[in-house]
Amino acid sequence: MRDLLPPAVAVAVAEPPDWDGQLYAAEAACLGDRVVASRRRDFTAGRVCARRAMAMLGLPPVAVPAGADRSPIWPPGTVGTITHTRGYCAAAVGRGSEIRAVGMDAEQHRELSPEVRRLICLPEEEEQADRLPPGVSWPTVVFSAKETVYKVWHPIVGSWLGFHDALVEVDPATATFTARIAPAQVAAASIAHPPTVITGRFAVDPHLVRTAAALAADLGT
Ligand SMILES: CC(C)(COP(=O)(O)OP(=O)(O)OC[C@H]1O[C@@H](n2cnc3c(N)ncnc32)[C@H](O)[C@@H]1OP(=O)(O)O)[C@@H](O)C(=O)NCCC(=O)NCCS
């Protein structure tokens, strides 16, 4: 993930067995008592990574509770993002003065069923997947890019974005993606200057697909 984001964003990654750590009381309260062990482990790994990333920026270790919608509540003046999948967890944190929003997603690298492809992909994205070089599950890259886009969009705009509300174009030569947000969603946004285009980077290995994107604070786009 480090290579997928600008230097101003601090990135911390945890892979087993490096998952352990402590939750702060405010975080444990968000998680509750009735969650399965795997959910507690993933949530904790995310918070451990978040504090490691904050430390890289010279920030003190503080709680990162979750809102009612499950989105992390970052300390004032900071923005961040968390992702976890089997065997991998990462958090990224930036200063709000430099970074408007950051999103990141990791997925297992596997083929999606035709049904899931249709739920995730617009027809243009399905056609794109058929054209791109073999050996990569391109619909999974599109899926991950869309989750990243949602993690960028939602904290600043506050509204839901469905999988068909962004058109993702993938460039394998540069390992980048460009997501164009549906004009109706942009028009409906209740903030000034909602993002209309979100660009990011991706990385693919035999096990994982990773995507990340950050908006610079001064661009306002
Ligand atoms: C929220 C969502 C993006 C999380 O992605 P995921 O692949 O299921 O899981 P990940 O491990 O990558 O990310 C989970 C983390 O996302 C973060 N998250 C949850 N809701 C979030 C939100 N609304 N905004 C930003 N981050 C959010 C949390 O930190 C969560 O981890 P935690 O609960 O342990 O703190 C996904 O569950 C979802 O709701 N997707 C539908 C919306 C969407 O993606 N639309 C596509 C728009 S083009």
From TrEMBL:
State the UniProt keywords alphabetically.
Magnesium, Metal-binding, Transferase
Which sites bind Mg(2+)?
D105, A106, E107
Which molecular function terms from Gene Ontology are attached?
Answer: holo-[acyl-carrier-protein] synthase activity; magnesium ion binding
User: Which cofactor(s) are needed, names only?
Assistant: Mg(2+)
Q: Where does CoA bind?
A: R39, R47, T83, H84, D105, E147, K151, L161
Give the 4'-phosphopantetheinyl transferase N-terminal domain ranges: 34-93
The residue stretches assigned to a coiled coil in this entry are none
Q: Which InterPro entries match?
A: 4-PPantetheinyl_Trfase_dom, 4-PPantetheinyl_Trfase_dom_sf, 4PPT_N, Enbac_synth_compD-like
Q: Which GO terms describe its biological process?
A: enterobactin biosynthetic process
**All copies of domain 4'-phosphopantetheinyl transferase, residue ranges:** 101-179
Pfam families in the cross-refs: 4PPT_N, ACPS
CC per GO annotation: enterobactin synthetase complex; plasma membrane
In terms of PANTHER family, this protein maps to: ENTEROBACTIN SYNTHASE COMPONENT D
Protein name as annotated: 4'-phosphopantetheinyl transferase superfamily protein
What is the organism of origin for this protein? Micromonospora zingiberis
